[in-house]
Amino acid sequence: MRASFEKNKKGILLMACASLCVCLGQLFWKLSGPQALWLLLPGFALYGLGALIMLVAYRYGSVSVLQPVLAMNYVLTVVLAAAVLREEITLLRIAGIVCVTVGVVLVCGGDGGEEETS
Q1: Which of 29, 34, 72, 109 has the fewest CB within 10 Å, making it most exposed?
Q2: For 19-78, how does the pLDDT look when each residue is reduced to its tens digit (9 = 90+)?
Q3: Which one, of 79, 73, 82, lies nearest residue 100 by Cα?
Q4: Is there a domain that residue 34 lies in?
Q5: Number of structural domains, the chain?
Q6: Does any domain span residue 65?
Q7: In this structure, is residue 6 part of a structural domain?
């Protein structure tokens, strides 16, 4: 498991950063409204930055490991919604967060020593 993390570490970190940018961009979209249309611009900028970082991340790891890291969007979205929008985190959502996080860790660490082709 550790070998897979080490092999894909840079890509995983970049993908996590991309995920954060995308989630923040979407939060800005949510916060924009008739009185705050200006928030759309930083929202699009963050979302676009996330997409660019994602493209770079694919150069530093296996797609089968990096793509599932984007599932952390679900976790980040719930955390941001609770922190910024004061949305409730229910027990069921906590269970979902745990399942997603465990799944991402297992997928990222479960490369099984496969050779990268490309």
Answers
A1: 34
A2: 999 999 999 999 998 888 899 999 999 999 999 999 999 999 889 889 999 999 999 999
A3: 73
A4: yes
A5: 1
A6: yes
A7: yes
Whether the CB-CB separation of 60 and 16 falls below 8 Å is answered with no
Query: The tokens 């967060």 sit on which residue?
Result: 97
Q: What is the dihedral of CA 18, 20, 24, 26, to 10 degrees?
A: 60
Length of the chain: 118
CA distance 38 to 34: 9
- Domain membership flag for residue 118: no
Instruction: Tell me which residue range forms the domain holding 38.
Output: 2-109
DSSP per-residue codes, 69-106: HTTHHHHHHHHHHHHHS-----HHHHHHHHHHHHHHHH
Distance CA 61, CA 75 (A): 22
Distance CA 16, CA 99 (A): 17
pTM for the structure as a whole: 0.82
Terminal alpha carbon distance of the chain: 22
